Amino acid sequence: MTMETHTLDTYTPSKKAYKLHYKIWGGNNPPENTLVCVHGLTGNSGDFKYVGEYLSTRNNIRVVAIDMAGRNDSDYFDDPHDYNFTQYLTDLDSLLKEIGCTAPASCDWLGASMGGLLGFYIAARENSPIRRLILDDVGIEVPQADLQFIAQYITVTAEYEKIEDLVPLLKMTLGSPYSRGNMNEDQWLHFATTYLRKNAAGKYARNMDDKIAVMFKKEPLGKIDLMQLWEHIPQPTLALRGGLSTLFPAKVAEKMQSTKVGDAMDLVIMPDCGHIPSLYRDDQIEIIAKWLLRTQPLAAA
After folding, report:
1. What is the pLDDT of residue 15?
2. Model confidence over 158-192: pLDDT tens digits?
3. Per the structure, how many domains does the chain have?
4. pLDDT score at 299
5. pTM: predicted TM-score of the whole model, two decimal places
6. What share of the chain is helix, strand, coil (3-state, %, to 5)?
7. CATH classification of the domain holding 152
8. What sign does the dihedral 156-180-58-39 (CA atoms) show?
9. Is the preceding peptide bond at 276 cis, omega within 30 degrees of 0?
């Protein structure tokens, strides 16, 4: 299925214009079958390449994945304080308007880590455009130790002569709380390619704005207690948890299941993964595909 790239114009609170990029797989598929994919803190739209190819081809779904500001092909902010949840949500509202998903229950949502947190905010709204919510290794509580680890990790800078040089280092995470799980060589290379971009010096460095770290250290989860949001999310929810993950502990997943309002939260454990399951493999994406099929709302009579 062909992948399309698009540009969205938006503004900071100070009215400074900037551009966001997003990708669509299955652009000719029915718009009511839209899955919006939002990446994690250091990710970008490339994280959803395999999800987009699989679901658009096999399940007739229009898959939309955005580069949030400061990542990949989207513009970087001059002011690091603009990398906050309020601005992210404003940008996502602009995206939903752009793709025709502003009506209640007009799209499904797949959020990886930060993308899942942003999904909480939108799903909890009255007449939310989110019909069903899929969370990739994120919950209503995040251990402080993990937040501290990430805050340190995103300040570390490194450069590589070529993209392939990063692959062995990525593989070293296998079996750890931050493992993406087993992948084939093409998938490891795609991970590295998504993670890096060539800089002005001709070296390969992380594909994001280093200034993102400033606001993450101040407000890693936004300003609202996530439990308050969770209590207002009645939509069917699928939580994917990395079996090795410390960021989304089993006890948090169980708490979410026991306190879920409205439709149930289904929980699937991916044993070989930590934070986050890559969603590169067919067996992982098939879980999403089957769940979407099983929870498909009945057509109006």
Report:
1. 85
2. 999 999 999 999 999 999 999 999 999 999 999 99
3. 1
4. 57
5. 0.97
6. 35, 20, 45
7. 3.40.50.1820
8. negative
9. yes
- 168 within 8 A of 27, measured Cβ to Cβ: no
Domain membership of residue 269 (yes or no) is yes
Asked, for residue 300, whether it belongs to a domain, the answer is no
- Domain membership flag for residue 147: yes
The parent domain of residue 157 ranges over: 3-294
In 191-254, which ranges are E strands? 196-198, 204-206, 237-242
| CA–CA dist 19, 74 (Å, integer) | 6
Residues of the chain with confidence (pLDDT) below 70: 1, 299-301
pLDDT at 1: 64
Structure token pair of residue 108: 């499904």
Question: Given the structure tokens 């752009």, which residue do they identify?
Answer: 98
Q: DSSP letter at 178?
A: T
The answer to whether residue 299 sits within a structural domain is no
Residues 45/22, Cβ–Cβ less than 8 Å: yes
Give the pLDDT of residue 224.
86
